[in-house]
Amino acid sequence: MTALTTALLAAFLAPQDDAAEMKWTVLDGDRFDLKWTYTEQRKREAQQDQASHDKRDVEAELAWKAEGILTLTLKKVAWTTGNQDYEITLLYAEGKKIDPRLQMKSAPGAPGYNNAKSEADRLIEYMKKLTEGEFTVNTIEEKGRTIFMWNGGNVRQMTPSLFDKIFTHPLLPSGPVRVGQIFKDPFEVSNLPPGLVDVKQVESKVTATGDKGIIAKGGLTVPFGKTFTAQGQVQNMNGTFTYGIEWNYSPKQYLQKAAEESKLTKKIDAKGKDADFYKENLNHSYSQVLTIKKKDPKPGEKKPEKPAEK
Fold this sequence. Notes:
Blueprint: H1 3-13, E1 31-45, E2 50-66, E3 69-83, E4 86-93, E5 101-104, H2 113-128, E6 135-138, E7 147-150, E8 153-154, E9 182-186, E10 201-208, E11 214-230, E12 233-249, E13 255-271, H3 275-278, E14 280-294
Antiparallel strand pairs: 1-2, 1-14, 2-3, 3-4, 3-6, 4-5, 6-7, 7-8, 9-10, 10-11, 11-12, 12-13, 13-14
C-alpha cells in the first residue's frame, strides 16, 4: 500500500466534521424544568408623554404527552404590566387561587380613560382563565419549529396571552448543521414601526457544536435618519435599531436555551410652525430568556427508553 493510499484511507475513516442536528427527541416519561423571563419598556416623550412596561417571570414543568408534544404545567407566574393609565399585577403559584389586581391611574372622565379601562379589563379576564384549558409545546406540527400552544392554538397569534411574546428560534434546517453555517430568516419583531427601516431578513450563524450544545447566534444594527421639509417647517429624524438572538440545542436533543433582545431609539427635532407638536424622543426595548433543563427520573422511576425499532 502506497503512502498516498494510506493517507487517503486515513482521511476517509477519520471523523469528517462537527456536524450535529438541532432537533427534539422526546420519550414517554421525559420531564423538563422550564423558566422564561420577559421584560419590555417603552417611553415616548412628546407633546403627550407615554410610557408602558411588561414583566413576566414563568416557571413550569414540561412532560411527555405524545410523539413530539409536551404538556406545560404552570408552577409560578409573576406578571406586572401597565402604562400611564393602569397597572396590573398577577402573582400565581400552582394550586393557589388566581387573583390579578388592577389599579387605574387615570380618573374616570379623563381623556382615554374608557379605552384604557376596557383594555385593562380584557387582560384581567384573560389572567383569571390562565390555568383553564391546556398549554402544550409542539415540536412536530411545523417541522423545524418549537411552538407554544394554548387549547390547540399558537400563542403567538393570540392577544392577550401569557406566552404571546415568547421566542424559541427561527425555522431550523433539516439535517445536520456545522460551525460557520449561516441561516437567513424573515425578520419579524414587535417594536419596529412599519416602514421605519427596510429590513426583511436577519442572518444567524452556528458558532459552536459539542458538549455544550449546538449554538447559533444572529442579529443586526441599523441606523436610520430622514429630513422632512414642508411649508417652512423642518423635521430631522434619526435613530438606531438593534436586534440579537441566540438559541442552543442540547446534545441530548432538545431546545435548552433561547434568547432575544431588541432596542429602538428614535428622536425627532423640529423647527418652524407647531414645532413642539412634532418633537419626539422614543425608547422601546425588550429582552427575554427561555431555559429548559431535562429532569432526572425520580427515585424508583423507570428511565425513559427509546421505542424499539420496527
